């Protein structure tokens, strides 16, 4: 820590040089290659990056020019980011799985002159859109496989570029020239452009400067007490702010080691082998892990199964309290200790969570049960809230003060304010400079006094923790004026394992109603156990017993909505279970599995009419797209249930 | 798509394997009757034909599993009429099977390692010790195997018993085991059978890459005509054990006998 504080490096290149000087022998990067973990120390990385920088400069990469980085998490791609920053060039990481059209858009918009890519797949993709990229001069690649017969006039293997740089660096003149370039780098220079994933319209290039990135990373490194002994598994997409922040920026500031998985599919196994101390995963991943554990436990022997369930129960009672440092009876502590020995630690070891000191999740709401499960095992899982424009962090939960349904108080040095409409505004050390080549959009999101509009609606709870309810533009109003946050309601529903997807309606209507998609795995499993016979998804979805079960879930949601003064009006009056699964192929979900409410409302208009005209059932015919692209229609008669509404009792209690 | 430039690389007329007037009978059943064709070095050669045309029998003859009653087979300039499968293997012929034939209880890694058996020089005694020269040898082989795993992109299933893998992946492991022998001639018996479109595309890519990167000569049996026409340099067509056509895909496609064999003839 002191070492970090002692320097005031304002660029990543200077930080790298500093790390090479003070902890040159400590591991900086690992990568599993041919089944064996390869390690590079900070000193080695620094040397490689210097060579790569000189090699790139020889190819003609200049200060201020953009270089695209396309591929999976590979040390050499991270080094390219560093090398580009060393030269004052601007790295532009792009999602490796982007389709050619998206890739072409970003590369053309960012005016990239160079592209550093992982392998043949990416080379092919860029070549296929090369006519849209007249500015692109050279491409360098990491993995030579399959590229031998390609025209190499503008294509170069990265190893060769590094070797050329190494050769050139033997000349002391070149070395001191490079030192000069590095020293001349300013913190206010553009350090990277991160393109947002673009759920709404074209993606925008978020311009970040080195000094702001580093300032933000310093704050969080201190906040979570990260140091050079920490280790992360760098498996998040390179182009996502999360990877660039959590792994790259924090790694360079704290001097910890980034381990790159062998491939995206092996990330789970690599996690176990590396045993990171700092970990981030979206809620979806935590959910998948839990499901896998539970399924595997079902196959375990009886003794093990009973032991597991007993101690999970113990953890539920005491685990979180112990983690939060609350008072727990001695008996509870002893039982929990035994549970650690027999269940929690072995389980965490299998998952690769043994050494984790700090784990974060963000991106969407995490189910309180899911969140508590991991925390009760002693995993210090916390939530954060942020966005690319903030260089990630806006709020985060501090150790020991966790409330599952909030995202925590503002981070150090972050100011948050709520607009009149309830939109969250913030100003932070890491905040962006603007959108690349889009002053109009930049003006749109900035307030006059320099706060960024997040577009999210939220409020602070009495303890000062921020609670995000929905996208501000999606929060509607019922006819009686009460607030209608669709996603907030949908998330509450989706936390029940039986409910896979929910779509709530209510804006400018008299009451809230919703569509529900059952989860075929969970409900199918239930059906099997309860001898409920069904022939298809449609039949199961329409089964009266399934309706009864879902009704209980909806009732519970209503009860919890009634408990919150601001939300009591948004209780669900009527619901129906859709006869088919919402599907991205039918345009009902985005590719990232978010519901497209407007489209669904149009497509299922007769059902919505029925939800609001009091009828007990409705007929619907929809067109569906099968996996092989053929189209067909499904028609069904869907039943509608009325729900009980709870009085907003808590209002009085609170008053 | 890359077939044209590969043609240029093939040294024309350099025959790796020649089948001459081969006939195979099981009792009274004539599986193959008087078939001749050759496989040139570096090419991808497809053997096609309707069900029961004798395609798999032909592969079995080539790798010495069946012994034809008549005819000669010349491999790398050496002519023979009888050969045992292990001799074929040691001379550089590897194959995969129509119905995957892996060691189900063993991991992917061990299965592919098994493909290296013929290359191991140290005897049973040294291997038991797990030290010294046998260890060094094992490390060397492991490296080759790891390169194959990397090549086939199956890192994630390295330690998974193959019995637990989906069919498409098992096929890929089987290809890996055949590659571990570093064969000169690779025989693939319906490498895409039972695969979905994506798996087929992957497999096509691997076959082309094996051919271009390692220069391995490949003979394959396949039913998917799109795949055959795209992949292969030359195609031989069998029907009821006889050869009815032989040539580049375009020739074969327009050959009347082939069209009749596949679509039937009006009576």
Automatic annotation (TrEMBL), chain A:
The identity of this protein, by name, is Long-chain acyl-CoA synthetase (AMP-forming)
Which keywords does this Swiss-Prot/TrEMBL entry list? ATP-binding, Nucleotide-binding
Q: Which PANTHER family match?
A: AMP-BINDING DOMAIN-CONTAINING PROTEIN-RELATED, LONG-CHAIN-FATTY-ACID--COA LIGASE
| Domain AMP-dependent synthetase/ligase: residue ranges | 17-436
Q: Which organism does this sequence originate in? A: Chelatococcus sambhunathii
User: What PROSITE patterns does UniProt report for this protein, alphabetically?
Assistant: AMP_BINDING (PS00455)
Record-linked Pfam families: AMP-binding, AMP-binding_C_3
From TrEMBL, chain B:
Top-rank taxon of the source lineage equals Bacteria
Pfam families attached here? ABC_tran (PF00005), BCA_ABC_TP_C (PF12399)
Which UniProt key words apply to this protein?
Answer: ATP-binding, Nucleotide-binding, Transport
Gene Ontology cellular component list: plasma membrane
Quote the protein name from its UniProt record.
Answer: Branched-chain amino acid transport system ATP-binding protein
ABC transporter domain boundaries: 17-265
Q: List GO molecular-function terms, semicolon-separated.
A: ATP binding; ATP hydrolysis activity
Question: InterPro entries recorded for this chain?
Answer: AAA+_ATPase, ABC_AA/LPS_Transport, ABC_transporter-like_ATP-bd, BCA_ABC_TP_C, P-loop_NTPase
